[in-house]
Amino acid sequence: MSESKQETIRYPASRIVDIAKALSGDVRVRILEALGDKTMSVSQLAEALGVAQPTVSINVQILEQAELVVSTQGANREKLCSVTCRSILLELPAKPGEGLHRTEEIHMPIGMYSHCSVQPTCGMAARDGTLLGSTDDPRVFYMPERIDAALLWFSGAGYIEYYFANPMPPGASLDELHIRAELCSEAPSFKMTWPSDITVSINGLPVGTWTSPSDFGDRKGKLTPERWRAGSEYGRLTEWRVTAGGSQVNGEAASGTTIGELGLAFNQPIRVRFEVREDAPNANGMNLFGAGFGDHPQDIVLSFVRYHEQPQA
């Protein structure tokens, strides 16, 4: 047995779901069986299990994320795998929230909104850069194909609203709520000087306004497909944060709305709205970028943060 291998690893209650998922696949259990007390390369595992090498690689990564397998680089730059322990001990949760991570995240595709109000110029594009429906036709925002959107835009005033599930069980405390998204203003083609005031509200309460300085199109977005030639190329990754002391946008104080005022309930959706208000000083529309467009590989991310986890014994 490798000297670095532990006999038993103890996992807190917040890791139960990770470990359970890692052990729920037949291929992953067979990988652990094949490794035993040995070190094997990915190609050796594929041959021993009779499974395609890419499949082995994916399942090894899942085991690595759960810290059940560790990998090193061999002499020929091949990945060498070994197990980290011979047994595991899982602590069961004893209080609401102990089975959750310190930060739980929900990733929402930008096309999965629940309500909207848009006006031309407006439209949507898929991840490959093709248009969904026709441009400047608000009916596109009500078509089933909208779920494939990787970029959506509207000019002037309007909004896009999403319903998020609340992962926190009854009685579990929540200290912060974060929203991250890549956005910018919207102008015909693009305009580098084109400010737009984009406000986020949660359950009807405003948590802050960010003024986008531009409809960015001066260069290609890092993830934007080559076939896209319609102007807007990338946005700015922007974060709204709600705490017990108020709300911030990109770390700057923005609103007096506190997390306790949001009325969060485990059995009620959390309504998140991105809006350019009609009375905004700069009502110049919005581009919202998904995982396959712009500069950042993410959709809308809603994070639930607790300051404290159950201490390990």
From TrEMBL:
Pfam families noted in UniProt:
HTH_20
Give all residue intervals belonging to the HTH arsR-type domain: 18-93
GO function terms (MF aspect): DNA binding; DNA-binding transcription factor activity
Q: Which keywords belong to this entry?
A: DNA-binding, Transcription, Transcription regulation
Q: Note the InterPro entries from the entry.
A: ArsR-like_HTH, HTH_ArsR_DNA-bd_dom, Metal_resp_trans_reg, WH-like_DNA-bd_sf, WH_DNA-bd_sf
State the name under which the record lists this protein. Helix-turn-helix domain-containing protein
Q: Which organism is it from?
A: Cohnella nanjingensis
